[in-house]
Every structure is written in C-alpha cells, then in structure tokens.
Amino acid sequence: AANAEGEVEIRDGAVCAQASKAALPRLLPLLLDIGQRLTQNLDVARRLADNARRDPLPGVRLRNLLVLARERPGEPVTRDALRAACSDPDPQIRLRAAAELGAEGHETLIALAASTEDDDTWSAQAVSALAQHLPLERMKAILGQALRSRRLETARACLTSLGRWRAAAIGELVKVLESEQDDLAAAAALALGGTGEASAEPPLLRALEHFSPEIQIAAATTLGRAGSVETVLPLQEAAERGGRDVRRAAHQAIAEIQARLQDAAPGQLSLAANEAGQLSLPEAEAGQLSLAPEAPGQLSSRPERPVAVPIQPPR
User: Fold this and answer.
1) What HEC string does the chain produce?
2) How close are the terminal C-alpha atoms of the chain, in Å?
3) Among 3, 72, 177, 298, which residue's CB has the most CB atoms within a 10 Å radius?
4) Half-sphere exposure of 246 (CA within 13 A, CB side)
5) What are residue 164's phi and psi, to 5 degrees?
6) Does pTM surpass 0.70?
7) 223, 233 contact by CB (below 8 A)
8) Cα–Cα distance for residue pair 19/28, rounded to 1 Å
9) Cβ 120 vs Cβ 152: under 8 Å
10) Per residue of the chain (315 residues), what is the pLDDT tens digit?
11) HSE (side-chain half, CA atoms, 13 Å) at 276
C-alpha cells in the first residue's frame, strides 16, 4: 500500500520514502505503521513454525520448515513443527520432516516408502533415507509391491539398499536379475556386487550371456569391482561376442580385476609384461595347471612356460 503512494525502501535501518506533497498525508500514517512493526520484538521461530503449518502453498510451508530446522535445530518449537509436518498432505514435506527427525521419523518414512498413492520419486527417496534402518523383510515387501505396481524408482532404491544385507539378499537380487529387463535387472546386478559375497558371481556370469547389452554391461561392471580371477575368461568371451559397449565394459572389468591381483601366484592369471593387453599364467610349479601351447584355451598339468592370451582392445 505504501508503494502505491510513492517509492518506499528500508535503507541503513531507516524507512525512506519519496512521494509528492499531495501523497504525504496518505503516506505518513503508513510509514509510521511500518516503523512500529519493525521495532516490535518478533518471535521469528514461532512465525516460521506457524507458516510451516498454515501457509496454503506447499513450497512456502517447506521453505519455512527447512529454515527453522537449519537455524533453530533441536529447539522445542522446531521439533513440534517437524512432528506436525509429518502429517502434511504434501509427500515432499513429510519426507523432509521425517528425515530431520531421525529415528523419530522412521515410521513416517516407512509409510511413505510403502505408499502407492504418493509420487514414486518421494517413495524412492524415503527408501534411500531409511537405508539400513528398514528391516530386510519389510524391504523385500516394498520391493515386491513396487515391482507389481511398476513403481520403478522405488524398486531401484530397494535394490540398491538390498546389497547391504550381503548373503541374506542374494536370492531376492538374483530373482530380479533373472526376471526383469534392462534397468531393473542392471540395478540388481550392481547390487549383487555390493553384497561382497562369492555366491553372487555365478548369476553375474550367467548375466554376461543375456541378450540385453545393458544387463551384460552391468554384470561386467560389477565383476570388475568385485569379481575373482575365475571371472576373467568369461569376461573375455563376453568381449569377443558382444558389441562395442559390452567389449569396453568387459575389458575394463578385466583390467580392474588385474589391478587387484598385481602379485598373482603361480597358476593365477596376470597381464603379460612383454605385450600390453594380454593375459598370461605365471610360471607354474610341476603338477600345477597352465595353458597348453598346442591347444590354446585348454588346461594342461605340464609345467609349461606362460602362454599369452590376446585381448582385443576396445574399438
């Protein structure tokens, strides 16, 4: 209203105005009212909490809540506002409030993760925010529901989190790897590597033979991060029959495995020092296995010299 009568601004702690003489009688009362309001001792935290509860716009409610949580963390007014926000109709506000509350907000996050009514994005973020705090069986149930309703972001978040349960999650991850297509199967492959379990290797090796390049690449990438030396030859075979992207992923995986096995013992695969990009077997003791030169790719028990196995560089 004051700006309608002239140009009003706050400068150096004072209210300043420029207006015509004719507007002064109307402008002065407004300026006095502004000055009185600015000198009042306001309870800023309470005002922020009230706005977080009552403003009709979700974006405004969220901003007030986040400012309150940042500026007055742990205060009773903040905790009360966060608890109230866990019942907000907007899922993003419920998500942020519950995450700020820590353990007290877990039930709200679980309800949001399992929701089929709210946006898939917020359910997925709720799963990620819970991480290891969500029990395994509940995580499996949310994953199954997400797969049935094709809430793909939530399903991917569940798969990523399942890798933290190590051996207990292998069966569920293998089921998704073998029954789903492309991005979900790829997410399951990557999560299998996160388990750190040797039993994850066989399903990943089977995935190298999948018709989908995306799944082959995910399997190769995972084996590169966590595979044993026994996966090198299957990776080489996948590189030979796959397209350019699969070849690149398989070769990268072999290089990563080799980097973890710099001090290979006799009978293990290593990179040949004399010819870059080749594999060889370190010189074996009598009675140990080596590659027979007369039958490349076959195993012999004779103490042969190392035989190089060419690896085609990525094209």
Assistant:
1) CHHHHCEEEEECCEEEEECCHHHHHHHHHHHHHHHHHHHCCCCHHHHHHHHHHHCCCHHHHHHHHHHHHHHCCCCHHHHHHHHHHCCCCCHHHHHHHHHHHHHHHHHHHHHHHCCCCCCHHHHHHHHHHHHHHCCHHHHHHHHHHHHHHCCHHHHHHHHHHHHHHHHHHHHHHHHHHHHCCHHHHHHHHHHHHHHCCHHHHHHHHHHCCCCCHHHHHHHHHHHHHHCCHHHHHHHHHHHHHCCHHHHHHHHHHHHHHHHHCCCCCCCCCEECCCCCCEEECCCCCCCCCEECCCCCCCEECCCCCCCCEECCCCC
2) 70
3) 177
4) 21
5) -70, -15
6) no
7) no
8) 10
9) yes
10) 444 555 667 676 676 777 676 776 777 777 777 766 666 556 788 989 999 999 999 999 999 999 999 999 989 999 999 999 999 999 999 999 999 999 999 999 999 999 988 899 999 999 999 977 888 899 999 999 999 999 999 999 999 999 888 889 999 999 999 999 889 999 999 999 888 888 999 999 999 988 899 999 999 999 998 889 999 999 999 999 989 999 999 999 999 998 887 654 444 444 443 333 444 444 444 444 444 444 444 444 334 444 344 444 444
11) 1
List of long-range contacts for 264-268, beta carbons under 8 Å, 24+ apart? 264/229, 268/229
Give me the residue label for tokens 């509940």: 138
| Overall residue count recorded for the chain in this entry | 315
